[in-house]
Amino acid sequence: MKKKVLLTLFVLFSLFVCTESRAQYLDPHFAIYLTSPLGLLSKGGVKAEYRLNLQHALLLSYTQYWGYFPGYQSALEYRIYFAAHSRESNSENFIYGKAGLGYAGYTPNSSNNQVTSIDDNHTNDKAPGAYALAGGGIGRHINFGWFFIELNAGLKFAQVTGQPRVYNEHLFYVTGPGSIADFNFHFGIQF
Fold first, then answer.
1. CB of 72 within 8 A of CB of 65?
2. In this structure, how many other beta carbons lie within 10 angstroms of the beta carbon of residue 72?
3. How many CB atoms are closer than 10 A to CB 136?
4. Looking at the whole model, is its pTM more than 0.85?
5. Which of 182, 183, 155, 180 is nearest to 170 (CA)?
6. CA-angle at 130, arms to 129 and 135, nearest 5°
7. Between 73 and 174, where is the model more confident?
8. How far is CA 180 from CA 1, 31, 103, in A?
């Protein structure tokens, strides 16, 4: 009787140990992203990721902009991850698509405050206001245990809703929150 109890306990503890050792190979389900310190001159932001499974994830982001176009931007992002060469690799490639909304004000430089558009006496110091965006691209997610870094490149298209007749459209679409090029560097923690 004593041997059966010990054998049963041994089997149960063995199963428990196998289950716990398997847990160290499971992928993280949640991650918190911070925007690159290189972008702090014009923006700062945070993302939260929820992994649906090994290949699919949903991310919710919030970015605060300052400079010429102070405002904010929120987006929902969907990702499909592709593991690099092997399961033991510490990096993953991904493709993503995103959609979101934002608001951009306008704080002109005092020397550019009186610039007019095509000599029609309308100044370019209006705020673009609310806008919607959609975009997509590719990226690489590199894991270092619970810490990670990430690079992505893609295209983003923004449409200002209820736009003013004249605003600094070129600056908004080239370097502002509506920029067409969507290059980002993020770092964060995953658990």
1. yes
2. 16
3. 16
4. no
5. 180
6. 125
7. 73
8. 74, 26, 16
